[in-house]
Fold:
Amino acid sequence: MKRRFRSLITMSLVAGSLMMYSCGDSKKEKEETVSHEDHEMHENSDHTHSENSGHSHSEKTVAAAEFKNDGVKQVFNQYLEVKDALVQTDAEAASEAAKELQVSLEENNPEIAKIAGNIAGENDVNKQREAFSELTAAMDPVLKQAISSGKIYKQFCPMAFEGKGDYWYSNSDQIRNPYFGDRMLKCGRVEETIQ
Structure:
């Protein structure tokens, strides 16, 4: 019985270590803001990065992106509201933000509006996160073609969707994971800076 218990504990520690390693596998990236200590499951501080020894990254960098037209700027800001609601694991707020995004997209991008509508019509945050993945992929060409100045951070979590990994956009280089919320708030890295 003791041996079985020890085996179980050992396996749990190995699994936990692998999870932390997977999420922190890109520390080589210059814009990386994640450290192993950041993977504490219940880390909620938005301002404390003192555990990132060697980095004076105590404040997030927010880059106000400007776009060739105001419609895309509005859509990007609404997208960020959906993302932030998912970071908070707030299905109701995500639904409300997605409704506004859907209305903004209906005229010029009906296919993307439909994806936003899928988020708006759902009250299960995990299903909203799946639709958000589709939304992010659909927004890629829209944002890349329309940005005129500033930066957008394309971020990636290798742990999302059972280790398949997935992307999201942010106006900050600070990682706030919409796929896990506070369970793995800082899991991820800046994959691309769009400017």
Notes: The radius of gyration is 18 Å. The chain has one domain: 1-195. The CA atoms of residues 90 and 157 lie 19 Å apart. Residues 2-23 form the longest helix (22 residues).
